[in-house]
Amino acid sequence: MGHTTPALLVSAVLWLLAAYHLTLGGTALVSPATAPRVMRALYGMSLPDDDAWRYLTSMVGMLALAIGVLAAVAALAPMQNRPIVAALLLLQLGRILCRIRDRRLLATSLGVSGARNLAAIAVLAAECAVLGTWLR
After folding, report:
1. CA geometry: angle at 96 spanning 92 and 101, to 5°?
2. Which pLDDT tens digit goes with each residue over 66-88?
3. DSSP assignment of 64-121, as one string?
4. pTM greater than 0.85 (yes/no)
5. Phi and psi angles of residue 46, each rounded to the nearest 5 degrees, phi first
């Protein structure tokens, strides 16, 4: 178990997930008005900039911070934190599912191009491949 994918690669993916979630979560929580610009730069996503969206952005930011902390804990000792690694794998698989299922919604409502969506799916799939292979 956990020997088919090198531990260094798994730790690198976990650290990347931690950095991503801590950075975006912190931005969304501390500066929700900045989050739409960040999402546009990363995903080509156009988010509304009103009070309701700022509140929702802060709440999602708090969830991202919690995920980032868990990813960092798992990165420090993956073998001792296999349930966290499995939960992160499930999260990323769910994100792939949502991006495939909601591709039209992403395009029409948030302005995400098909190419940007496929790129995000490819990154998520690579993360899932590393984590899933390691968990076997």
Report:
1. 145
2. 999 999 999 999 999 999 999 99
3. HHHHHHHHHHHHH-TGGGHHHHHHHHHHHHHHHHHHHHTHHHHHHHH---HHHHHHHH
4. yes
5. -105, 105
